[in-house]
Amino acid sequence: xxxxxxxxxxxxxxxxxxxxxxxxxxxxxxxxxxxxxxxxxxxxxxxxxxxxxxxxxxxxxxxxxxxxxxxxxxxxxxxxxxxxxxxxxxxxxxxxxxxxxxxxxxxxxxxxxxxxxxxxxxxxxxxxxxxxxxxxxxxxxxxxxxxxxxxxxxxxxxxxxxxxxxxxxxxxxxxxxxxxxxxxxxxxxxxxxxxxxxxxxxxxxxxxxxxxxxxxxxxxxxxxxxxxxxxxxxxxxxxxxxxxxxxxxxxxxxxxxxxxxxxxxxxxxxxxxxxxxxxxxxxxxxxxxxxxxxxxxxxxxxxxxxxxxx
Length: 310
Description:
By secondary structure, this protein is of the alpha/beta class. The chain is built from 13 helices and 14 strands.
């Protein structure tokens, strides 16, 4: 069994590749919920939905997020009424948020709702949130304290980041699926997808016992670097690194995961870093990590599985 931790577009792409090359029962996917927030009275889970739509093959292939063939009648009508439209909810996407919110308010857990939605979307691998408790990524910036979606979407990552806070993480429990996966005797490896370390993975590592559990595993923990040639293919990972006082590099990724990681997977563009990483005691694998299409996703997934002999 492979446990994959994911969030964002890069994480969703590799999650999809793993899902296509592994038997469904051999893959558990756990997704960041630090990005979750309430909007227009609805519980929105951006990372969960991005991974879910990608696994279902219903995602917008141009953006990597959202639903293919989306329509925007609701947002147009809302704008005409003077409503709040800075965070766009497409008509098909809206149905997911309405149903999730209804069931959460009826007392179901986020894990139960996610499992049910995955079934409806014909997703075979196990898909779960990192926690059923509320954890919120708070961005402390030169413009003050901002909720994550305010920083990321409304302000387009423009404020300078001073520090990040994963509010509620210390009191939150890892989801049952995450706890069981980490303790499963069948576990062969953990894959940390090429997601933003600070925004998509750190909230998961901030949950009680998770980082320590990963560090204590006797199976490989493989990290795929989201930084290639000093830049992020999508999102603000490189900008965040700079603003938090680090050089945007796979070396910084290695340092971030050093206490939990067995192997760092870097792109061929960063092959010159192999000797530097080796001097730091970091084992690395060099391969093409850019996933432009389904074949690239599956190719990278197979490379990782070959590394662990799965």
